[in-house]
Write a sequence for this structure.
C-alpha cells in the first residue's frame, strides 16, 4: 500500500508539473521548418520533449547521444498531416551499446509534385571511450550529420547540416534521471532554390531537457531557444505492465498516443489536435541484440564498461601508424597487451621491438581477480597514473597468476613503472 501511495503521489506531482509548464509556455510562436517535427507516433505523442528521453533509432533526430546503451533497432513512422500531405520516417541503428550509429530518412509528400527529403546519419559514443575527458559515469555524446533537399513546384534546393548532443543518465534508488542537451543546426549551409535570390537559413537551436522515471511513470520536459524565442514541451508516459504504454504531451498543441509492446516488437499510435486539422500517425519498431545497462555503483561493471572497445581502439591506432609508415610506439603496444593479453598483433609487434617471447596469459575469470586486474589494465591503457599502484597491488595478491607475467613484462619495458633497486633505495 505504501508503494502504491508513493506512485500515486508521483503521478499527481508529474501531472501538476506539466500543467504548470503549460501555463508558462512562451506566447510567441516560431516559424517551423521541414525538420521542426520528428517521428510523430512516439516522440510526437510526448510533445516532442525527447531531448533527455530519446528512444530507438529515432535518437538520431532527437538526441544522437541517446543511441548509447540502446539495442539495435529499426522503425517506420507515418503521419497524414493534411488531406494532401503525408510525413514518413524510416530509421535504423546498430553497433554495440557503447558506440552506436544510426540512420534516419524523412520524406514529406506535398501536392503539385512537391516533396521534401532529409537523410540523417548519427553516432553516439559512451564517455568512457574518450580517454582525454574526465570520467563521468552515465555521460554520452553524439553528433548527427544530414542533408535536406526540397522540391517546390519544380524548383529545387538542397544543403547540409550538423547537430551535436549530450546525455547524462543516473539512477538514484527507484528514481531514474536523465538530463540532455542538443545544438540543432550548429551548421546549416542554406537553402537557395533554382533561379531564386533569397537563401533560407534555419536558425541554430539550443535544447535542454530532463526526464524523471519511477514505477512505470516517466515525466518529460524540454526547453528550446532559437532566434531569441523560447519554446517548452511536456510529456508523460505511463507503462501499464509490460504491454501497454499511455502517452500524452503538449507543445503548441495537445498530443496523445498509445503503444503496444510484445517482446521486441512495438506498435504505436499518435494523435495531434491541430488548429486546422488533426494529425493521426502510426509506427512499428523492432529491436534486437543485448542492451547493457551498466550499474556504475558496481566497481566490476564500471571497469568492464570502460574496458570494452579499448582493444579495438588501441589496435586501430597501432595499425594506423603502420599503414602511414609512422614509427609504432612501444608504449601503445604495451597498452594493447594490457587490455588484450591474447592479442596476436600485440605479441608480434612486441617481439619485433623487444625480442620478448610470447607466453600464455589471459584476463582472470573470477570476479574479484578480474576486477583487480582491470583496475590496473584500464587506467594503464588510458594513461592514468594510478595504474602503477594498482599493478603492485595485483602482484602482491596474485603473484602466481599467468596475467601477473603481463604486468611484470609491462613494468620491465615501462621506465615509469620500474621498481627502484636496493642500491637506489639506499
Amino acid at each position: 500500500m505504501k508503494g502504491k501511495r508513493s506512485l500515486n503521489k508521483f503521478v499527481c506531482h508529474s501531472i501538476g508539473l506539466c500543467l504548470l509548464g503549460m501555463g508558462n509556455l512562451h506566447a510567441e510562436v516560431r516559424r517551423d521548418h521541414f525538420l521542426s517535427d520528428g517521428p510523430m507516433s512516439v516522440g510526437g505523442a510526448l510533445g516532442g520533449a525527447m531531448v533527455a528521453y530519446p528512444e530507438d533509432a529515432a535518437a538520431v533526430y532527437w538526441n544522437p547521444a541517446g543511441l548509447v546503451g540502446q539495442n539495435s533497432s529499426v522503425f517506420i513512422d507515418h503521419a497524414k498531416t493534411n488531406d494532401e500531405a503525408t510525413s514518413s520516417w524510416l530509421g535504423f541503428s546498430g553497433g554495440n551499446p557503447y558506440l552506436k550509429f544510426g540512420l534516419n530518412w524523412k520524406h514529406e509528400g506535398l501536392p503539385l509534385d512537391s516533396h521534401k527529403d532529409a537523410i540523417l546519419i548519427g553516432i553516439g559514443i559512451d564517455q568512457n571511450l574518450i580517454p582525454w575527458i574526465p570520467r563521468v559515469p552515465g555521460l554520452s555524446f553524439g553528433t548527427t550529420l544530414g542533408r535536406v533537399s526540397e522540391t517546390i513546384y519544380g524548383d529545387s534546393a538542397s544543403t547540409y547540416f550538423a547537430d551535436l548532443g549530450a546525455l547524462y543518465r543516473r539512477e538514484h534508488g527507484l528514481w531514474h534521471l536523465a538530463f540532455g542537451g542538443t545544438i540543432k543546426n550548429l551548421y546549416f549551409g542554406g537553402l537557395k532554390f533554382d533561379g531564386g535570390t533569397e537563401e533560407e537559413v534555419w536558425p541554430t537551436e539550443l535544447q535542454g531537457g530532463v526526464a524523471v522515471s519511477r514505477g512505470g511513470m516517466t515525466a518529460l520536459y524540454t526547453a528550446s531557444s532559437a532566434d531569441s524565442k523560447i519554446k517548452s514541451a511536456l510529456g508523460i508516459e505511463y507503462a501499464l505492465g509490460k504491454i501497454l504504454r499511455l502517452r500524452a504531451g503538449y507543445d503548441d498543441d495537445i498530443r496523445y498516443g498509445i503503444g503496444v509492446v510484445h517482446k521486441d516488437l512495438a506498435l504505436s499510435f499518435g494523435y495531434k489536435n491541430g488548429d486546422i486539422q488533426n494529425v493521426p500517425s502510426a509506427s512499428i519498431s523492432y529491436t534486437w541484440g543485448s542492451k547493457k545497462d551498466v550499474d556504475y555503483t558496481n566497481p566490476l561493471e564500471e571497469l568492464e564498461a570502460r574496458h570494452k572497445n579499448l582493444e579495438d581502439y588501441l589496435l586501430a591506432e597501432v595499425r594506423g601508424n603502420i599503414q602511414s609508415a609512422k614509427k609504432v610506439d612501444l608504449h601503445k603496444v604495451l597498452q594493447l597487451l594490457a587490455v588484450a593479453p591474447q592479442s596476436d598483433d600485440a605479441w608480434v609487434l612486441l617481439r619485433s621491438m623487444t625480442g620478448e617471447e610470447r607466453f600464455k596469459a589471459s584476463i582472470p575469470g573470477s570476479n574479484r581477480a578480474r576486477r583487480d586486474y582491470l583496475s590496473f589494465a584500464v587506467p594503464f591503457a588510458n594513461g592514468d597514473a594510478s595504474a602503477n599502484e594498482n599493478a603492485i597491488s595485483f602482484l602482491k595478491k596474485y603473484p602466481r597468476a599467468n596475467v601477473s607475467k603481463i604486468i611484470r613484462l609491462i613494468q620491465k619495458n615501462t621506465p615509469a613503472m620500474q621498481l627502484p633497486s636496493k642500491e637506489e633505495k639506499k
Summary: Residues 171 and 394 are 31 Å apart (CA to CA). The chain is about 25% helix and 40% strand. The longest helix spans residues 2-23. The chain has a mean pLDDT of 84.
